[in-house]
Design goal:
The protein is mainly alpha-helical. Helix content is about 50%, strand content about 10%. It contains nine helices and four strands.
């Protein structure tokens, strides 16, 4: 189809691709300049790849774009889109930008933590944001890894046990397998 119409193939988490799939993508990258084909992929550089040889080949042919972190106006837009223009939303955006150092994922994880710890509350159809964010202990913002670790520690025992099992499973697991591995968890909770 790419011989006639332009085609864009978008891939997320390329570091997780198997060797065979990566080889196919590397082959496509060789013919892409001669066709109306564009390959766009994201790769998390802090996660080891499963198909390093083929990924190296792809990297050699790629135009690498390293995204920058969110600037303060971007974080403000994130806060406005999440909570609306409620009181203290600008102060929250400033705090988030400083605490998350511009990382979009860290911003959203911190928001989740603030809601979970009752700092941000939904009352009478409107979000209530305090003038100052004050968190203690595990709730205090740290790096992204520590924020995610704190979130995992807060999981119910059944969800944690399922997550630990899936972490060593070594491959994708469908909903049916998750339900079978966690008989005490309702199907809608497993997903």
């Amino acid at each position: 189809r790419a011989l006639v119409d332009p085609l864009v193939l978008v891939l997320d988490n390329l570091q997780r691709v198997d060797e065979g799939s990566a080889a196919v993508l590397a082959g496509l990258s060789h013919v892409a300049p001669k066709r109306s084909l564009l390959l766009v992929a994201s790769l998390q550089s802090d996660e080891p790849g499963r198909a390093d040889g083929a990924l190296t080949n792809l990297r050699e042919r790629a135009v690498v774009i390293r995204p920058r972190g969110l600037q303060e106006p971007d974080v403000l837009a994130l806060v406005r889109n999440t909570f609306g223009e409620v009181d203290n939303h600008v102060a929250l955006a400033t705090w988030l930008h400083r605490a998350a150092e511009g990382s979009p994922l860290h911003c959203t994880e911190l928001i989740h933590s603030l809601v979970e710890h009752g700092q941000l509350r939904y009352v009478g159809g409107i979000w209530v944001i305090p003038e100052r964010i004050e968190l203690e202990g595990d709730a205090r913002p740290q790096g992204l890894a520590q924020t995610l670790d704190a979130r995992v520690r807060g999981l119910p025992a059944s969800a944690l046990a399922l997550g630990q099992t899936l972490a060593v499973f070594g491959q994708e697991a469908g909903l049916a397998l998750c339900v079978a591995l966690a008989p005490d968890v309702e199907e809608q909770e497993a997903f």
